[in-house]
Write a structure and sequence with these properties.
The longest helix is centred in the middle third of the chain and has 26 residues. Helix 1 runs antiparallel to helix 2 and helix 2 runs antiparallel to helix 3. The chain contains four helices and no strands. It has one domain. With 96 residues, the chain is mainly alpha-helical.
Amino acid sequence: MSEFFIGIALFLLVNIVAGLVRIIRGPSLGDRMLALQLFGTTGVAILLLLAESFSEPPLRDVALVFALLAVLAMVAYVKLVGPESDERHARREESA
């Protein structure tokens, strides 16, 4: 069963690479932030799979901390950047 969990973790790692492409290409700041959320969620899933596969309960604690940090990062993004920043970014791209 541990080979199955490791296989799923590798598949999720490929999803992170796909998210990296979205961060590089954009097209908007919101898309990039959602791709970063994908990193957080997928990273938590990978850690949980590895914790189960290798019977390492401390990895579950690390996954919980990463999940909480991902939520805080999203709240900070919305508070600091907000939707008006996306409009300014779009205007800059149109003028370039």
